[in-house]
Amino acid sequence: MKRWHRAGRLAALLFGASLATSALADEATDRASSLVARMTPAEKIAQLQSAAPAISRLGVPAYDWWSEGLHGFARFGEATVFPQAIGLAASWDPALLHAVGGVVATQTRDKFLATGFDKNHGRYNGLTIWSPNINIFRDPRWGRGQETYGEDPRLTATLAVAFIEGLQGDDPAHPTVIATPKHFAVHSGPEPGRHGFDVDVSAHDLEDTYLPAFRAAVVDGRAGSIMCAYNAIHGVPVCALPWLLGERLRNDWGFQGFVVSDCDAVDDMTMFHHYQKDNAGSAASALRAGTDLDCGSAYADLRGALADGRISEHDLDVAATRLFTARYRLGMFDASAPTPRDDAEADRALALRAAGESIVLLKNRANTLPLKPGGRIAVVGPNADALSVLEANYHGTARQPVTPLDGLRALWGEQNVRYAQGATLAEGVTVPIPETALRGDGMHVTRGLKGEYFRDARISGKPAFTRFDSKVDMDTDHAPPAAGLDASRYAVRWTGQLLPPGAGDYTLAVRMDRCFDCRGHDPVRLYLDGQLIAGSTGGDEPPSVKLHFDDTHPHDLRLEWEHSGEDQGIHLEWMAPADAQLAEAASAAADADAVVAFVGLSPGVEGEELKVDVPGFMGGDRTDIGLPASQQKLLETVAASKKPLVVVLMSGSAVALNWASEHADAIVVAWYPGEQGGLAVAQTLAGVMSPAGRLPVTFYRDVRDLPPFIDYTMKGRTYRYFKGEPLYAFGDGLSYTTFAYDAPELSAQSLKAGDSLDVAVSVRNTGTRSGDEVVQLYLAYPDAPDAPRRALVGFQRVSLAAGKQRTVSFHLDARALSLVDADGTRAVRAGRYALFAGGHQPSAGQLPATFTVTGHADVPR
């Protein structure tokens, strides 16, 4: 009776809280409706565009709805940069995602309040975060797959809900920020042509693979907004697809928030889909279908659609009320809105934890790792000391970034670390000029270049201060390169010498980071031996320069940068002769006890609609999933030293490390690990951290194992439908300790369709050191058409001390036990099922726990 009384009291409290939340939401809607009723049609139309102008007479400040927070508050100055989303997914840790989301939200609101709650807020300074990206990473060739949580619907859904709840906070009526899961729906490349491609997706694959994470984000995570994608489905652009935005999103899932288009997606409906003859028609179609907010300006043409009757003023009212309801819920018009505070040290510690949890150990022959203390290490590879592979894309400006070279020097001591870049990233791709090729003084002692920093955007007079920079590889987005400078106006002159590692042909380049829709680049000038070899007065980026050096004689180098525009960083880069760089790497390996090679990709070659067309890469996507040839040659060169070889892969996607899988002693996947990534990698190699990440994607052996990239059919894709032998499987990952499992215990051996099933799994640490284990539960289905080979239905990351044991429990509801038929109907179906529990997918000889289901029960869409 006492237990029932407590449960009843809790239910009453929850019901009361629900009523209170509903009342507050209704209040926000009422206030929004009242405000919108006082607007003119022209004002309403202006408010439906992402850069919404102020309405002074109504006390409405200007507000740009576009802000980013994929793995840290982005594009508006200093913020904690966590591992890229695919790295966070490799943690398999929803609690971590929730914590990261909370930090992103806090830092976002801090920046908003610093501007002033009642002030105008421009792009990237708002409280509407256009994240997370929960598209399914169905093919490793997609350059934006790094932004996702991987290839599995259950993993993606669980992590998405955790991140969304972290972002929005504990008070549904007053979210800290509003999350925007994207891109709804069925969107995962190719990048070239993304603005106009039409997806021919089956009803089965839509319900089974492409929609579950979005449903969870809305139904379970209660996301306050959602972004519709560029693509069409069966000929209709999704931002104008009534059944998707109306029937499914609002009716089936009960979505109460607002829908925003991907940027310029409405314009794309006219320009690329040719869905309507003009933007008035496209805008009207999108608005009537349920797209409330246009990221772009195509909705300006709603004036014509209103005039000729294609939309009504009521259509405008509905969308505008949804938008202003969000602004009221966010407290944008309330001076008493809560003011969270930033904790830089705690946030940095969380970034380190996140980077450590994301690391996946794939191979560890003869316990090569952890590396023995006191030894000498050769650090090689183009990703060992590059800022971009820490920050990835959609990032903030890292406060104190730690590259792998920095981290290893911190733990092993600089005197025990030999460094050689060893190779470029890929043919035709420049990389930062390393410190080994730069000297800042005439004695050839100080690595890097001497930087003279000026407080004005002109190089004249005496510099404000001088320092030595090991390389010119800087992110200065809304942040100065050094304390004491104005972020919007300064100048830098770097001087020193370039030390060619060998004779041959070189390419030098000054690469500038420029924001979207900016006017042009800052003036830059590059001098070699006193001669201007590359420069820009503020228009285009300076062209790269091809040079030939006959020997290794030092050359005077000077780089000048006058910043007064919107450039967000500067990078002095090169391509050096392969033979010379390989010789440096071989020398470093010969003088070391072990070699650590940092290889992989970069956000400069895989990403969103990039202007890249070199062997293996096109437009941001990949045409080859193998390691680029220049880096493969580097691995073979250092392996010839016969020293233990540790390969650390830094990328946003799976790379076919076929040679390394056979020849390297250890393989570690570090992804794009964020601002503390270098320290996390070093601590993992040293054994301070024990790796426990798991692959959120399949590592295939060859691109030929995959269906065509443009084919959205799931047959032959991901671990659920791929019948070949992968190089490394989804869910794979090793530890520095070992774990053992007892057979799963089921709450029932037979159940009626629609009933739930509880599963208990006992796991123990059988090794000699503490570690984390990711307990994974997979369901194998009866022999039904279109059924996946197996599917993840539950997972938990647990920590166990050596010798300790723990029982992990899973609750499988009807949705977890359901199947989708060819018509897209989800139901629990009769048959015999098998459950496998362990630290990875089922292995040969592993005995399942079986149960039967009787009857049939449909599951809501």
UniProtKB/TrEMBL annotation:
PROSITE patterns noted in UniProt:
PA14
Which InterPro entries does the annotation name? BXL, Fn3-like, GH, Glyco_hydro_3_C, Glyco_hydro_3_C_sf, Glyco_hydro_3_N, Glyco_hydro_3_N_sf, Ig-like_fold
Which controlled-vocabulary keywords does the entry list?
Glycosidase, Hydrolase, Signal
EC class (word): hydrolase
| Domain of life according to the entry | Bacteria
- In this protein, which residues make up the domain named PA14? 444-588
The record's comment on protein family reads: Belongs to the glycosyl hydrolase 3 family.
Q: What is this protein called?
A: Beta-glucosidase
Q: Give the species.
A: Dyella japonica
